[in-house]
Each structure stands twice: as structure tokens, then as C-alpha cells.
Amino acid sequence: MEFRVLGPLEVLGGTEPIALGRRRGERCLLGLLLLDAGAVVPLDRLLDLLWDGDPPEAARGTVKTHVARLRSVLDPHRDGRLGVRLQRRGEGYLVDVDPDAVDAHRFRQLSARAMRASGAEDRSTMLREALRLWRGPLLADVASDRLRDRVGTGLAELRLSMLEEWAEAELDRGRHRQLIAELVDLVQAHPLRERLVGALMLALGRDDRQADALALYRRTRDALGEQLGLDPGPELRGLHDQILRGDPAPAPAPTGSTLTGPVPTAPDAEHVRPAQLPAHTRHFTGRGGQLRELDAVLAEVTGGTGPAVVVISAAAGTGKSALAVHWAQRVRHRFPDGQLYLDLRAHAAAPALRPIEALAALLAALGLPAERVPTEPDQATGVYRSLVADRRLLIVLDDALDPEQVRPLLPGGPTAMVVVTSRLRLGGLVAIEGAQRLALDVLDRDEAVALIGAVVGADRIRAEPDAVHRLVEVCDRLPLALRIAAANLADEPDTGVAAFVDRLAGARLASLRVDGDDRAAVRVAFELSYRRLDAAVRRMFRLVALAPGPDVTAGTAAALAAVPPGRAAALLAVLTDAHLVHQVAADRFRMHDLVRTYGRERASAEEGDRGRDAATARLFEWYRMAVDEAARRLYPEKLRLPPPEAETDPGRVPARHPPRFGTEPAALAWLDAERPNLVAAVVAAADTGPHRYAWLLADALRGYFWLRMHLVDWKTVAEAGLRAARTAVEPAAEAAAHLSLADLDTFRSRYPDAIAHYERALAFTRATGWLMGQSAALGNLGNVYWRSGRLAEAAEHYTSALDIDQRTGWRAGQAVKRGNLGSVCRALGRLDEAREHYLAALALDVEVGSRNAEGVDLGDLGDVYRAQGRLDEALDHATRGLAVLRAVGDRGSEAETLRILAEIHRDAGRHEAALEAATAALALARDTGERRTETDSLNTLATVHTQLGRPAAALTLHEQALQLARETGTYPEVEACLGLAAAHRRLGTPDRADEHLRRAADLSHRYGYRLLAERARDALDATS
After folding, report:
1. CA 532 to each of CA 487, 491, 514, 527: distance values in angstroms, whole numbers, following the listed order
2. Is position 904 within any domain?
3. Same structural domain for residues 363 and 298?
4. Cα–Cα nearest to 443, from 416, 499, 482
5. How far is CA 17 from each of CA 2, 72, 79, rounded to the nearest angstrom?
6. 71, 121: one domain
7. For residue 261, is pLDDT > 50?
8. Where in the chain is the DNA-binding region found (predicted)?
9. Does 765 map to a domain?
10. pLDDT tens across 460-501, in order?
11. Partners of 11 in the beta sheet?
12. Would you state the torsion angle of the CA atoms of residues 601, 604, 606, 610, taken in this order, to the nearest 10 degrees?
């Protein structure tokens, strides 16, 4: 069967339509289930959608009847033989069908494929195919406009985004003249879509109609100012300036997101110029032919033809990375938009980067806040390609594993160049992506001699030329072996080259193979360097090789070796001089992957399993103590699993010298710097043990991820903690992992998933008798219910959690629950109770030292004082709260406090200050991905425009808020309805105003929003 929802609802069996009957309710039910094909849709949501939030008492029975009738048509035998099953699952229903049979799913898939296409023609063709699936508005014959707004906003926005992508692809094909008529219609329908306007301006400019293009810009600028109080964005302004300068063929406007509408960039992301190339390799020698080949590819790419991807493939130790970085440094001035460098870690200690992790790193380097990085690979790829489109970037991808790892990281346009290094040939990139392969061999003899001379000096080369030639051959002319051997020779100025070579050759006879290669030169060079070291330095070398992350510091090295940090720093300096580690930043050291492999082999041989395990456990314990110290400084109110005690945990290895943090910024800076190592440690502990460190670290990092919103790493760490807990059958640890995953889903407004995780956590905490865990699960469930508008349930959960906290004496937990109860009372209009709760919470915050919670509660108190008309006190509390939140780095709460400040300024008549604060709150909320705060900020900004006599601008902003409120909660939905009513009243459309007022009155009465209900009732009374 084939199902069509992009237009009137249709079900086809083969090519013939299947009659579903004329009952709108059952057809609408099927359409709603098909939009989430393969997923369970909760019955409560279906009831809410089918009856617009007001289901009759018989609604559940009606749905049951609808389902039975649909089954009789779609699955009469109840066995799925027609390819579809309609099933009851728990408290919901699902359509079990191949998603590809549903046109909405195919539209998303085709859109994603189109955005991965490298050529404009292919992209245009695929987008046209995707857009043809639309036959009209979503569920045109069964859904009301309101229902369509509630369930179809994302699809409608994606359709508009794909129309924009298609228009830009057509422009890239040079079809501007044929495109103008269609773009005129699209711009008339969507006059504030700046990408569409930019595409039409570009088409007009290329058709020598510059005057029309400039007139269009003026109309758009005026409309944006009148309706939104905004100026055109930097892309549109830049295009306008190009046309004014008479540029005959200005570049296309930058593309937007491929999957979710406009690219969620930070305000300055367009202007970030990454410069990530590592430093030149010292004494780089030779490779003239390969450098010329790379120069030739660059000439073709910048000329608009030829491949944009070069693969440097060679065996380990041949200098692939050194060549790539050396050439990239030479030509970086040819890439004015920046240079990206990423180690893909195919052969590192930590697992190779997954594409989603690589994309997160690249997007961060391009200026995209971590919280805006999608966690799904296809979406992240689309955002990445949108950000790099039409930018002159040089991208170096070092140590690639396979083509599948690289493909999502390749830009779609021709203006960037990508250099990939790998031990493999990566033939798939050559065959499919048209990459050019550059094979690298060992150095020729003259180049090898020159490299040795650069290290030891020309005099020693001239004194013993034959011995130097022997040294070159003993080292197999491998750059890595030559560098290490030359460094050793330089450290022995009184040793003749011939004697040194005799010693090296003798060691070689006893050596083993490296990575299956028949040359043992690299191992011999390592062995010679290693044996020359003191015993303490050798021990540090082999233990540092055990670190699971990409680098080490003096602190982590000290933990591994059980020595003081100062001693560790001195030993690392010796290893640096011996070329066995290299320093990449202040107090940060890395190993070449071959060196690390050798070091681990030495650790196995000389430390044994017991010694290796003890060193790793010391490192993990040091990390645990350090993260715990940072957590106490940054978020003491966050519940954490109790640490293992030596007397109850015989496997615990004590660690010495963990870091101490005197300030919140110091703690946050350490976590930021160590994040890649901490993620690697959690994954390593989950995979190979000790498992307890996986869940302890994952749990302690939960508050950090909430502050910083590194969503990809958050998910990786939480899932690793859960995996370890299940392996070890530790129910309390499993509860903690579910709490973390639930927090992540709450942030992403995935409330049903969050509730499921919190309920699992609650079950585990009850089974184990972990009372503080029960409190955390109950309190967080209350948060989800509060966001969903279920205030009575939220208050019930908060009260139960507070009772546990008072019985256990958990003061930090009491602070959180009192603040949460204040929020419920504030929403219910019980302002005096809200103030008392917030004051109690604030006192507890100060007592336990929770600066973050203190900042939040100060802002919330300011909001209550504002609602009570005490504006001076409101301003004082909100301003103090904002300062605290900025100091601790909680950007999400900073956005909400800015919004509160905007409302205080608005109520005080300081409209310019209100506009500034509300605009800043909205921008920060979008940056941090705080959808609820974004919704509230849109409403706040709209109310300021209303007071300034700009009802059209207010209307547009409230409408945006209303769309977002479908997923973020009913309270902002009521605020939006009240604002829309006021705007419509001023615009002379009283019928629409009354419609919104009735909706606001109904919702506020149903959910108990007393103050909002009074506002709605007063407004309705004023119109009667």
C-alpha cells in the first residue's frame, strides 16, 4: 500500500485508491498516525488533536471505533499481509508500516538525499522530485487549519526550505531567467522569507534588472521593519551592496539548513574564520613532487573545475600528516574563509570518531553553539553543508578510517578543498566522489639524508657520508624512524655515526614487524630511544600510552604513574625531547599512534595486567575526583551517585593530587578542556572496565552537559553509563543514566521520551531504596509536567520529592523543589506563595553554595515582584541574578532572566531597554536551543511592540510563539493567544481577536492559570 498525507488523505493499493469511508474522524486519526508511522502516538495526544483540546467523555470509545473500522479496511485479517498493521501499544496506537510507503517520510528522505548531492543539477532534480509529492496542504480534506498548525508546521517549514534550496540550485545552474516568474509568486506568498527574496534579487541582477532587484530589497526592508522591527540579515544586505557596486554576477546567497529550516547559527557564526591547522613539522624535508601535485589540484579547484578532494594514502610512519599540514600551512592564505583540521582517530587510543562526533567538532569550529548541533547524523550533515556552502575553506581530515567516515564531512559546493590522510586507499572516495589519490612512499635517499642533516648538523653528515647512507637504509627511509634516530644521534655528540648505525642495525636484527610491514625500522627507532631513557621516564612513557583520550596533561600523567604533578611534568619534558610525545598546547601532550602502540606493548610486557589495570583505575579515579570537585563548585544542587568508598569497594585505587578549583570559571574551563578525554574515559570504562567509572563519571558530568549543551557528547556519555550499569547489573547506576537521558530529552522538548526515562529511573530508585534518587526522579517528572501545563501533577510530584528531601536532610534538593513549587504557584497566580517558596529556595542556595540555582531563583523572584507591581525590587533581583548566571556560564538561564528583565523594563515604560533585553533573550534562547524560553521571548518581544503601537509586528511574533508553543507548553500558548487578541483588536479584526480570547480563556481555566484567566475574562467582558 501507499499512503499520501501531503494533500488530501489517500491510500493506494497498487495504483487504485482504497475507499476509507467518509467519516472525517477516522480518516483524520489515520492521517495523524501516519505522520508518526512506526511510532506509538499516546492516546491522550490523539484525543487532544482530534477534539482540539476538548475531548468529550465518549472520546476514547469513539477512537476505539475508528480504529476498528480502519482495521477492517487496512488489515482485515489482523496479520499485516497487506503491509500495514494498526496496533494498540500501551496507552497509545501505532501504524506499523514501512515508512517509505508514506509520502511525508519519502519527502524527508528525498530532501536529505538532495542536500547530500554535490552537483547543482542533481540537487535540483531530487528537490523537484521531493516537492512534487505535495498535492496541497497537509491532510487537506480532514485537518482544520488549527490542527494543521499543530502537527504540520515542521513539514510546511521543510517544504519552504526545500523550495529555497531548489531555487538556489537552479541559480547555480545558470537558470536565472527561467526562474524569475516562479520566484515572484513565491516571494508574494512569503514576503519575509529572506532567502527567497535573495534568490529573486540575484536572478533579477543576473538578468540585468538591477533596478528591480534594488526595489525588491527596499520593499523587503520596509516590511521587516514595519512588521517585525528588524533589519534585513547580513546575507541580504551583502547581496544588496554587491548589486549597488554593479557586480555583474554576485554570488548566491548562502543556503540555509537542509532539514529544519533556517540554519541555527550563532549571531556571528557567519563571520567565524577557523584557523585550526597544527604547527609545521620541524625539519620538514623533501616531498617536492607531492607538493606540486597538491598545488595543481588547488589550481583546478579554485578555477571552478576538477576534484575538491585529495586522498593522501600511505603506510604508517611515512609522513602523511606532516605533508598535509605542511602544504596546508603554505597555502592557507588562498582560503580566506578559514582552515579546519580534524583528527579522525582511525588508529588512536580512543575509538575512531563517528561521523556525528566529527560533525559536532567541525560545526563547533565554525561557530555553531554545541546545543544547536543536531544529534542525528543526516541533520548535522545538512547544517554543516549549509554553513560551508560557498565558503573558501581548506579542510584537513587526518587519519581517516574509511569512506563512510569521510563522506558526511565533505562540503557540497566547489569552493572548499578537502585533504584526507589515511593508511588505506579509500577507493570509494575516488570512485564515487571523484577524489584524487596521492600515493606517498618513503623518502628518496637525498631527502632522507637532508632530514638527518637538519637535525644533527651538516658537519656530521660530511664527516661520515657512508655511515649516514647506511643509517638512511637501516631506517628504511621512513620519516618517523629517521626523526627519532636523528634525535638520538643528536643527543650523543661524541658518538660516531658509524658506531650509532652498528648499534641500530644490531637492534634491528632482533626486532619484530610493525603493523604487518616487513620493515622494522620504526620499532627499532622506538626501542633505541626507549632504552636510552632512565627507568622512571620509561615507566612514564608506557603508562601514558594507556590513556584512552587524545592527549594527557601533567595531572593525568601523574595519576597514571602515581607521582606528583611536578615530577610528571619533568618526565613529560624528557619524553618530548626524545620525540616520543609531542606538546600540542601548554601542558597538553600527544603521542603518534605508532608510538602509542609501542608504548602499550611495553606496558603489557613490563607492567603486566595488574600494573596496567591499576594505572588505568588511578586515572579514572583521578578523573572522578576532579569532575566531582568541579560539580560541587558548579552545580551542587544536582544529585550524584555516592562515590565508592575504600572500605566498601576493594577494587577502588586511590588517586592523588586531583585539581582544586577556586572559582566557577576555573572549574568550567577545566571541564571544557578535558571534555574529549572525559568522553573517551567513560566509553573506555563502559567497554573494558572498571565499569563503575563509566556510570560515576557519566553521572557527575550530567550537570556540565546541561550547562554547556554538548548534545552529541551528552548522549554518548549517558548511553555508555547505561550500558555499563546494565553490564554490571547496578540498578542505582541505571537509574542515574536514565535521569541523564531524560534530562537530554526534556531539553529537546521530547516530553514523552523524557517521562519514560524518568519513570524507569523512579522504578529503579524505589527498588534499591535510594531515597535521594527517588526525589530527583519525582522532581524532574514534575518539571516535565510543569512544562506541559499539567500543574496539579507537577505540584504533587514536587511536594512528594520535597517530603523525601526533608526526611533525608538533603538541603540542595530542598532548594530545587522549593524553587520548582514557586514556579507552579507563579503560573497559578498565587504570587505570595510563589515569593515565599523562592525566598526559601534562595536561602538554601546560599547555604549549600549553589551559585547557579541562586542566579535562577533571583531572576524568578524578580518576575514575581514584577507581577506584584514592585518594579524596583524586581529590577534589583533580576539584575543580580543575571550577573550570577553570566559568572557561572549558564547561558540557557541567562536567556530566561534577560526575558524577565525585558518585562520589568516594559512594565516600567522603558521600552527601548525592554526591546534590547527581549531581543537579546530571543537570540540567546535560539543559540542555546531553549525552545520554551524562545517561545516566551517571542511573546515578550511582541508585547513590547504592542505597547509601542506596532500591532503588525506583534501579530507576527505572537504567531511564531503560538507555533512553538505546540511543543513547549500551554502557558506560552495562552500568552500568545492573549497577545494575538490584543494585536487583532488594534488591527481592526475583532472576530479573530475574540476567537483567540476564547481559546485563552478555555486553556487558562482548564489548566488553572488564574492570572491569565482573569486577563482573558476581563478582555472578553470589555468586548461584550
Report:
1. 12, 10, 21, 9
2. no
3. yes
4. 482
5. 9, 16, 21
6. yes
7. no
8. 1-97
9. no
10. 999 999 999 999 888 888 888 888 888 888 888 888 999 988
11. 3
12. 160
Using the predicted structure, report yes or no on whether residue 29 has a pLDDT greater than 70.
Answer: yes
In a domain, 79, yes or no: yes
Q: Residues 423, 456: one domain?
A: no
Instruction: Dig out the grid coordinates for 498 from the structure.
Output: 658509524
- Label residue 407 exposed, middle or buried (CB < 10 Å: 0-12, 13-18, 19+): middle
Residue positions counted in the chain: 1024
Whether 395 is covered by a domain: the verdict is yes
Owning domain of residue 493: 445-532
401: helix, strand or coil = coil
What is the predicted pLDDT for the residue at 862?
97
Rounded Cα gap, residues 61 and 107, in angstroms:
34
Indicate which CATH number applies to the domain containing 55. Answer: 1.10.10.10
The answer on 449 and 432 residing in a single domain is no
Backbone angles phi, psi at 397, to 5 degrees: -110, 105
Give the residue from 392, 423, 438 where a domain finishes.
438
Minimal CA–CA distance to 123: which of 180, 172, 157, 176? 172
- What is the tens place of the pLDDT at every residue in 39-72? 778 888 888 889 887 788 888 999 999 988 888 8
Grid coordinates of 523? 620499532
What are the distances in angstroms from CA 875 to CA 835, 921, 938, 940, 943? 15, 16, 21, 16, 18
Q: What is the DSSP letter of 949?
A: T
216: domain CATH number is 1.25.40.10
98 φ, ψ (degrees, to nearest 5): -60, 120
pLDDT at 266: 32
- Residue 644's Cβ-count burial label (10 Å; 0-12, 13-18, 19+) is middle
Place of cell 557527575: 700
H or E element, residue 295:
helix 288-302
**Measured CA angle at 451 (ends 446, 452), to 5 deg:** 100
Q: Are both 250 and 297 inside the same structural domain?
A: no
DSSP codes, 185-254:
HHHHH-TT-HHHHHHHHHHHHHTT-HHHHHHHHHHHHHHHHHHHS-PPPHHHHHHHHHHHTT-SSPPPPP
User: What is the maximal distance between C-alpha atoms in the chain?
Assistant: 107
Sorted by sequence, the CB contacts under 8 Å of residue 459 that are 6+ apart come out as: none
Distance CA 36, CA 29 (A): 11
Q: How far is CA 441 from CA 425, 520, 581, 789, 838, in A?
A: 13, 16, 24, 66, 69
Peptide bond into 690 cis (omega under 30): yes
pLDDT tier for residue 1015 given thresholds of 50, 70 and 90 = confident
Scanning 389-441, the segments in alpha helix (DSSP H) are 403-406, 427-432
Do residues 298 and 403 both lie within one domain? yes
Q: Are 203 and 250 found together in one domain?
A: yes
Q: Which CATH number fits the domain that encloses residue 343? A: 3.40.50.300
Section 522-546 average pLDDT:
88
Alpha-carbon distance 34 to 311, whole Å? 44
Q: Are residues 305 and 422 in the same domain?
A: yes
| Residue 299 contacts residue 331 (beta carbons within 8 Å) | no
DSSP-assigned letters across all residues of 633-699: HH-TTS--PPPPPTTT-TT----------SSHHHHHHHHHHHHHHHHHHHHHHHHHS-HHHHHHHHH
Cα–Cα distance between 643 and 639 in angstroms, integer? 12
Of 73, 94, 125, the residue that ends a domain is 125
- Provide the domain count of the chain: 4
* Whole-angstrom distance, CA of residue 761 vs CA of residue 992: 45
Residue 830 pLDDT more than 60?
A: yes
State the helix-helix crossing angle for 234-244 and 194-206, rounded to 10 degrees: 20
C-alpha cell at 96: 506499523
- Look at the pTM and tell me if it is higher than 0.70: no
- The DSSP-derived string for 983-996 is HHHHHT-HHHHHHH
The grid coordinates listed for 839 are: 525566598
